[in-house]
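Forwarding the complex inputs:
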Amino acid sequence: MDFLTLIQLLDSTVRLATPLLLACLAGLFSERAGIFDIGLEGKMLAAAFFSAAVAAITGSVWLGLAAGIASSIALSLLHGVASITFRGNQLISGVAINFLAAGLTVLIAQDWFQQGGRTPSLMGGGRFEPITLPFADALASVPVLGPIYAELISGHSFLVYLAFAAVPLTWWVLFRTRFGLRLRAVGENPAAVDTAGVSVVALRYAAVLICGVLCGIAGAYLSTALQAGFVKDMSAGRGFIALAALIFAKWRPWYALWATLLFGLFGALETRPDVIQAVIGMKVQGQLLGALPYIMTVIILAGFVGKAVPPRAGGEPYVKER
Amino acid sequence: MDVMPKWAEVVLVPLISLILAALISALVILGIGEDPIAAVELMVTGALGSTYGWGYTLYYATNFLFTGLAVSVAFHAGLFNIGGEGQAMLGGLGVALACLLIPWPHWTLALLGASLAAALFGAAWAAIPAFLQAKRGSHIVITTIMFNFIGAAVLNYVLVNVMRPAGSMDPATARFPEAVHLPTLHDILGVVGISFSRAAPANITFLIAIVACFLVWLLLWRTWLGYEIRSYGKSEPAAKYAGISPVAITMIAMLISGALAGLMAINNVMGEAERLVLNAVEGAGFIGIAVALMGRSHPFGVFLAALLFGFLYQGGAELALWTSIPRELIVVIQALVILFTGALDNMVRMPLEKLFLLLKRKEA
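Prediction (whole assembly, two chains):
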């Protein structure tokens, strides 16, 4: 494998890891606050549709992004109402949200565009265009570092840089602010937070809302940056891979970055069987690569390679004692 | 604290949830510019207006009976098995192997053998998540989700690389031999002189599914093991104190659950397609969740809910055929049923409890 192929491979790794990373951080906020969220997939899908649809109608990708985030927040609030206010089963609510998004996106897409559940292809201002970082062209001829800067680091869309910036930001919010401390506490021991006079309900809603915003960006990225338009079921299990990455990362922001990059690399390799064959001298089935994130997560969950301990109060509705 | 009479708990709460789901579905249909009443009429004639429609309704209902029972048994043990989809997929693999590798002399023997294979493969696919939950405390919801994806990859690999007949481009197995062809409802009802559509896929598996309902009821409410499963599901510490082994019950409940999900393959793989194709399960594993929730995890409730979803599925297909309402409407209805009967259960229950409390006070 030559250097340029490696750069290309890592470049598509970054592209494929971005939605996983955003969704993974979304799940991180929610689950750290004690709200399990298996509805990441559905929120991403809804956001992917509404951002592509609004971008197609208005021609503005920014309005599209706003619509995507709004739709994802709406589903988040539904999850919040079900699991915080009415203390319902968070897992069942998540399953319902996934199906709601899968059905409604196609129904509305068919009603609005009559193209069999897809949106028209986005052009021009309807998409997030790649951003060329300063001096990328000038430095491209520098050996080794030039291509890395020009091909790998430069030339991604705004949302990719946003996703990578979200990692230190998440770390800072969770581990260096009062809000973050309380948010983590509410996922471990809500009664203690309540005793301290801080509202458990408000904190959990805040976490669920942040989760909605991040899932919304992830979905918008799928349909307005990674691809040009929405197609049925385009999230294609990414919400669940993000969930796997979250466990893999043991609910930590920096680990989340490495986990999603690793799973992104698997995705990139899946499209380049020739590269694998050249490197390890053996043919690897595409299906195996596709299933690898799930298999690795099961192994991690089994506790054979370092135990993943979820937030202690995860999945349990908080009932104030009377 | 039982403030509600039993009938309210068993009938009223699910009924109100269902009505809420139906109302919102009607709003969705209105929202996409179609007439909900006309849609319901079309669904009823399409699904129940002919023996052809009934044949499809019962065929789908058979799938949902198995997956619904699978989810229910796990629910009773306090476990949420989202892996019905993957377990049914693997059950299909078991059926295909049994039908293709063994030269069965008669369909009755083939049915027995294939059922065994389907149950074994389904149970095997539930065994690893069950073991990890029981022994290492890994959350069963996450592991069963992961196993759905791993199962899809396994099936994809097997169909593309191993079981695909030479020269065929289709990722599917060869057709099963004529000897393993299961009698359809057309054949069965023909014996007693009732004419039933020949084209519809409903087959003898429907009767097996009804027997399975009865057996699950027997298991849960009339055996020692069923009692242990239910006590474990109600309270783990209490069950432990009573000498019930959490590991054993988790394993047994999940193996039964997986076997039931796997048995669905008798219907769709052996009874209908007569070969194993990719995506043979078509989401029936997930519909099992809605069916179990709506049926309150009771076999009779599951039976009614499976019939309702069979009707919705066939009616939805008719809608997609004759109107511009896509098939995905059913996915929306399914989501709303899961939402209202599962997650927003308390939203319905809390005001009802207040109402009954008020009535009680007036009486006193």
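The mean pLDDT of chain B is 92.
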